[in-house]
Amino acid sequence: MPRDPPIRQGGATGRFSSGMHSVVDESLRTAPKRILFVCRANQGRSPLAATILTDRLESVGVQPGRYAVTSAGLDARESSPVIPHVRIAAAALGLDLTAHKARALDGSAITSNSLILTMTEVQRGAISRKQPQALFKTFTLREVIRLGAAIPAGDGHGSLEEFSRVLHWNRARVAAAAEDEDIRDPAGLDLAATRAVVAEIDSLVSNLAMMLVSRTS
Length: 217
Description:
Blueprint: H1 12-30, E1 33-39, H2 45-59, E2 67-73, H3 84-91, H4 107-112, E3 115-118, H5 121-130, E4 138-140, H6 141-148, H7 160-170, H8 191-215
Parallel strand pairs: 1-2, 1-3, 3-4
């Protein structure tokens, strides 16, 4: 029976194989780390969180384009603007949300992102029901900070996907939260209450930014 010709080191086939590996490695190295924030309507909490994370990562010197941070809503009305109180409170932090247009969460967004952060436990469950395999990478915003705090700073876990898996494993190792880990929906709140919600999200996301820089490659 004829046998396949051997691949010679340095021959045409060897150079092609080596070149392909180089292309794949470079693609993986330069591909942006994809993070998705999800809330109910994509008119308040999730676009705010996405904007804050992008801003905080850039402020600590992360190269633009290194992360692709987006947001979506489980019950979003396409192209709806940000809630006025949220936009006003965000502006006080130097963040401009006027151009944001709501978008609905779809299956491709769940599949393509390596870390998904929701504002409530119910939203986290809804995503897991849509795609059960997304459980290992889907957390509430408060939960990811609680679980991530158990990972020593500087203890690199490689890719964002690996970081998500460590967080998921920590669910069985870290003490459960004493209360629910939901962040209030600013829809219907007055400006003062909305400012409190915005301040909480700002604090959590700023913490997340430092966690990503110190715990992922």
